Sequence to fold (115 residues):
Amino acid sequence: MDGPESPDDRLGDPDRIPTITCSECDQSWELAHELEELHAGNRAVEQFALDHYRHTGHYPDAVTPWIVACQHCVQEEQFLEEAPARRWAETHARHTRHKVGLRTPDGDAEQIAPE
Ligand SMILES: [Zn+2]
Ligand SMILES: [Zn+2]
Fold:
């Protein structure tokens, strides 16, 4: 595993306020408020992205979700993390015996088949 080793990488710069931009809205936001409430940069970005999607129907720039889709049900769900995306796909496949497509943020596609 080649995860981040240095404490600097893990903690980031505490003074840096993450900025999110959305080309669809032609807006940018500083997450100072979120950062104060959540005390963590990555969670602030994730929370903002989820809120933005909930209210506008799209994700801000630089946030690419995991997409799981069942062609059988014409159902699609988006997740910002791999674990819940995989869980949805595996659970759906298990209960419905459908094959579920999983698309990673890198654009790779996978099929989750019922066992
Ligand atoms: Zn937007
Ligand atoms: Zn299905």
